[in-house]
Design brief:
The structure holds two protein chains of two kinds.
Chain A (H helix, E strand, L loop, with lengths): L7 E5 L19 E9 L3 E9 L5 E9 L19 E9 L4 E5 L14 E3 L2 E3 L17 E10 L11 E9 L5 E5 L1 E3 L10 E4 L19 E7 L11 E11 L2 E2 L7 E9 L5 E9 L2 E4 L7 H4 L3 E8 L6 E11 L5 E7 L1 E3 L6 E4 L5
Parallel strand pairs in A: 16-24
Antiparallel strand pairs in A: 1-18, 2-9, 2-12, 3-6, 3-10, 4-5, 4-9, 7-8, 10-11, 13-24, 14-20, 14-23, 15-19, 15-21, 17-18, 17-20, 21-22
Chain B lengths: L3 E3 L25 E9 L5 E9 L5 E9 L2 E3 L5 E2 L11 E4 L2 E9 L4 E5 L24 E11 L2 E2 L5 E11 L4 E8 L1 E3 L11 E4 L10 E9 L3 E2 L6 E10 L2 E2 L6 E2 L1 E9 L5 E9 L2 E4 L15 H4 L3 E9 L3 E10 L6 E7 L1 E5 L4 E4 L15 E2 L2 E7 L8 E9 L4 H4 L8 E7 L4 E8 L6 E2 L5 E4 L8 E9 L2 E9 L15 E7 L4 E6 L4 E4 L3 E6 L2
Parallel strand pairs in B: 19-28, 29-39
Antiparallel strand pairs in B: 2-10, 2-14, 3-9, 3-12, 4-8, 4-10, 5-6, 5-7, 10-11, 12-13, 15-28, 16-24, 16-27, 18-23, 18-25, 19-20, 21-22, 21-24, 25-26, 30-31, 30-41, 31-37, 32-33, 32-38, 34-35, 35-36, 36-37, 38-39, 40-41
The chains are: A mainly beta, B mainly beta.
Chain lengths: 358, 528
């Protein structure tokens, strides 16, 4: 796992009230769905759900970004072993109200002769059965990264249909343990001009003369984490830890330049004490919250409220988290994914640049 | 730096309008939180870790209700999780349906957590008041609802967030399983709360944003073998109604019916419905049949691995989440992942959740009251409020007993409640509290008298039981009388005198019984 160093870690006692402004509803079907954490690295694999909630045929353009290190046999390092940042895109067409699923490592073929579910005792082997929505490529070996799907018209032009929901289940191949999170949605609005520049929140600008076409990214993400190293009640020798996955809201699939975001953590324990730190992530970051400010011996309480807020000159981002519980180093372990809560909407917008439609 | 692999495939499509905004939320702070499942099952090594957080920079008072929805064996009466916990032939079917109420104060931006098995007897800071009780009995399955309050009444502060983590540990099998989901929030509408215990979720008089018009879930059909290890998939739905009475003295679980539309990857749809009384915790493929292999939630019926459902509800909205389980077919152990459902739209109808003792004038009129064959109602709203008048006569009504009247000199509160419309909407509440100086018991019945009429304008009430008949007269006047927009009255108009001993008297006036109605005067004469 990639560890990204924290810039600072201090104890503060000052709190600032910033009234949030309204934000689109990421609970609801959306026009952009983001799966921040897709793993197919040989130890874990990811089952991806994507559903069309409309009564009509609907299309999406999807983009994997592979953030696996250049040399999978060496530890990741921003200088000596940087991420690949490999983009893989594909387009799907879902029939009315169609759900579809695929395993990241297998993808899905477009094969009208797919066999139906076959019975194995009382169970059913079904993978690939159903109308194939298109060709979904398997991700390369060792894949870690994100998936983004954007609703489009049949010509590939983005539209604000708000018809898609999604989820991802990450499965441990050796233990069978699973964790699941919901894809994060951004709802489109009637101002969508159908071009390849998707404007998420914010006021009209040079890049977005018509203003926001999609709901913006949150002003802050709120995550209630278990203290690092704290024990699961009634499970002697157990320890909890949390990792968060951060991806910038802005993406440039046209020039393929990775975006960087910088953000601040504000951590509150049960004693009304505040701790803070800051960090940057380029393109995709998966970080264990193992710094002192989340450590049980420092926090002194079992849980901590963690606010993660972009700095004033940074773009927005989305996150998911996974809590891991383990008994010793060789005992059983179990992960639980969690969707963070969101607060307000960033006043500044973020832009996704798609490859121009042919 | 980046390399690109491109695959293209297109087909015809139709552009559609955006869907309506959603209501309940699992991603924002809210004033009312619902944790649809709190589970403590010692025999299965299950406990629930509950997190509750105040996002505000000011402290917040919180009132919580822990609903015990654990089932009991129908005959033996012992607590059970399924039929196997009961004597042979004795179904595990009857919910306990009790409520434990507790209060606490969270300080600025404070996170609090506890194990449901233990509760939390003390909170960490001097600014924290209250405590969190342990679950009342074992095994336990129930619902936790918490709301922001001020001075004990609901407050429109959207500052609460929460999560529940289900933890299962079996040392003998070296098994650890954890899954977590966010509590479901209803955001308060600023300034909309009337401060009573009835929380109105959605609808025309909403105090909180309503429950979703539909909940949506993407899932793998039950009995599918997932492609990673060949584990068998099961899913469990947890759903609770958005209505109910959370009063520790007389709890009344809410009920609704969920209608499922299930879609497979062949564009086929299936449907079924399932009642929910208090709480539903059920494997998907047992919701519509006793033979799970033949369920519409089973891969054997769907023919595809991936599915989605859209669940709408009748009678009342629902709040739900689901748990995806992967069963190792060799060891028969299960790994779980809880997940929040998406919501679509907001219900047009209001859902009423009564959080505490119900108000004497509920938002919907009481269902069973004494009526009279002859009745009249006059309400006069002068430009000068000193001239406002109200009088209600109820003659020859059904018999009234001494217990119906209660003890208004010491304990029993009364109220006059006015409703109008085909779907009765509460128009006015005139509180008539207990008191020895205002209430008396003359030989012929009960009398309330307050010449000042300062309390909601009520001056006199006389209730005279005579054998199997009852006569009632209520009068009010002056500036304290609520100003009703008489021009907006729609028939039928319904008036009730209610007390908190459970008795009520009622007259209903249909359109043809309304003698005069304009902006200044309302007169009706009829009966029953």
């Amino acid at each position: 796992m990639q560890r990204l160093p924290l810039a600072t870690a201090t104890v503060l006692a000052i709190v600032v009230a910033v009234p949030p402004i309204a934000r689109g509803d990421i609970d609801a079907p959306s026009s952009i769905v983001v799966y921040p954490k897709i793993i197919a690295d040989g130890s874990r694999d990811t089952m991806i759900h994507l559903s069309n909630t409309s009564t009509s045929v609907t299309s999406v353009s999807c983009y994997y970004v592979n953030a696996a290190p250049l040399n999978p046999d060496l530890p990741p390092n921003p200088i000596t072993n940087p991420p690949l940042w490999q983009i893989i895109d594909f387009e799907l067409t879902l029939t009315a109200r169609q759900p579809t699923i695929w395993l990241a490592s297998l993808g899905r073929t477009d094969d009208a002769t797919d066999p139906p579910c076959s019975r194995i005792g009382g169970d059913f082997e079904c993978y690939g059965a159903g109308f194939d929505p298109g060709i979904i490529p398997p991700v390369p070996a060792g894949f870690v990264g994100e998936l983004v799907c954007v609703e489009t018209d049949p010509s590939g032009n983005p539209i604000a249909g708000n018809h898609f929901t999604g989820a991802a289940t990450i499965k441990d191949i050796s233990t069978g343990d699973v964790s699941r999170y919901r894809a994060i949605g951004s709802q489109g609005n009637e101002l969508n001009d159908g071009d390849d520049v998707l404007c998420l929140g914010g006021a009209p600008s040079g890049q977005c003369p018509g203003g926001a076409e999609y709901s913006g990214c949150p002003q802050a993400w709120l995550l209630d984490v278990r203290a690092e190293g704290s024990e699961i009640d009634g499970v002697p020798g157990s320890a909890l830890s949390t990792e968060i996955t951060v991806v910038p809201c802005a993406r440039d699939y046209e020039s393929q330049a990775p975006e960087t975001v910088t953000f601040q953590y504000a951590v509150h324990n049960e004693f009304e004490q505040q701790f803070s730190a800051s960090q940057s992530v380029t393109c995709w970051g998966n970080q264990s919250l193992s710094e002192d400010i989340w450590d049980y011996s420092v926090l002194g309480t079992a849980t901590a409220r963690t606010s993660i807020r972009p700095t004033s000159n940074s773009g927005g981002f989305v996150i998911v988290a996974e809590e891991h519980g383990a008994i010793g180093t060789s005992g059983p372990s179990a992960a639980a994914a969690l969707n963070a809560h969101a607060e307000g909407e960033r006043p500044g917008g973020d832009v996704i640049r798609l490859e121009p439609t042919l | 730096m980046c390399t690109r692999l491109t695959l293209l495939l297109t087909a015809g499509a139709v552009l559609h309008a955006a869907a309506a905004a959603a209501a309940t939320t699992t991603d924002e702070a809210a004033a009312l939180l619902t944790y649809p499942l709190i589970a403590v099952e010692p025999a299965n090594g299950v406990d629930t870790f509950v997190q509750l957080v105040n996002d505000d920079i000011a402290p917040v008072d919180v009132k919580c209700f822990l609903e015990d929805q654990t089932l009991q064996c129908l005959g033996a009466g012992s607590r059970c999780l399924d039929d196997s916990d009961c004597p042979s032939g004795d179904p595990c079917a009857v919910p306990v349906a009790e409520v434990v109420e507790f209060d606490l104060t969270l300080t600025a931006r404070q996170p609090i957590s506890w194990q449901a098995l233990d509760g939390r007897a003390t909170l960490p800071l001097p600014g924290n008041s209250g405590s969190i009780p342990a679950v009342p009995a074992l095994p336990f399955r129930g619902v936790l609802r918490c709301m922001a309050v001020e001075a004990g009444v609901p407050a429109d502060r959207n500052v609460l967030r929460g999560a529940a983590t289900f933890e299962r540990y079996d040392g003998s099998q070296s098994l650890l399983d954890r899954s977590r989901h966010n509590a479901v929030g209803n955001r308060a509408i600023p300034g909309a709360s009337n401060g009573d215990t009835e929380l109105v979720l959605g609808g025309p008089t909403a105090e909180y944003e309503g429950c979703g018009n539909a909940v949506l879930s993407d899932f793998l059909f039950d009995h599918t073998r997932e492609p990673v290890r060949g584990d068998e998939i099961f899913n469990t739905l947890v759903a609770v109604p958005c209505v109910g009475t959370l009063w520790d003295s007389v709890p009344l679980p809410g009920s609704t019916i969920i209608q499922f539309l299930v879609y497979n990857e062949f564009e086929q749809s299936f449907s079924t419905s399932r009642p929910v009384h208090g709480q539903l915790v059920q494997q998907f493929s047992t919701m519509d049949t006793n033979n799970p292999q033949r369920s519409i939630f089973s891969a054997g019926v769907s023919g595809t691995p991936g599915g989605r459902f859209r669940a709408t509800s009748f009678n009342a909205g629902v709040i739900a989440f689901a748990i995806e389980q992967h069963r190792d077919v060799v060891t028969d152990t299960r790994a779980s992942a809880a997940f929040d459902l998406a919501t679509q739209g907001e219900r047009a109808e209001a859902d009423v959740l009564t959080a505490g003792e119900p108000p004497i004038c509920p938002s919907a009129p009481r269902a069973t009251c004494k009526t009279a064959p002859r009745a009249s109602l006059s309400w006069i709203d002068k430009a000068d409020d000193e001239g406002d008048r109200f009088m209600w006569r109820f003659t020859g009504g059904e018999a009234t007993s001494a217990s119906d009247l209660g003890q208004p000199q010491t304990a029993t509160d009364y109220a006059i409640c006015v409703y109008h419309g085909d779907t009765p909407t509460r128009l006015a509440t005139l509180q008539v509290p207990a008191g020895s100086s205002t209430w008396s018991t003359p030989k012929d019945g009960l009398r309330y008298s307050d010449n000042t009429a300062v309390r909601d304008g009520v001056r006199t009430i006389q209730i005279k039981p005579r054998g199997n008949r009852t006569r009632l007269i209520a009068r009010g006047r002056g500036p304290s009388l609520p100003d009703i927009d008489l021009s907006a009255l729609t028939a039928p108009v319904l008036i009730q005198l209610n007390n908190d001993a459970g008795a009520c008297w009622q007259s209903t006036f249909t359109g043809s019984e309304i003698v005069a109605s304009d902006a200044r005067e309302f007169h009706a004469k009829g009966g029953d």
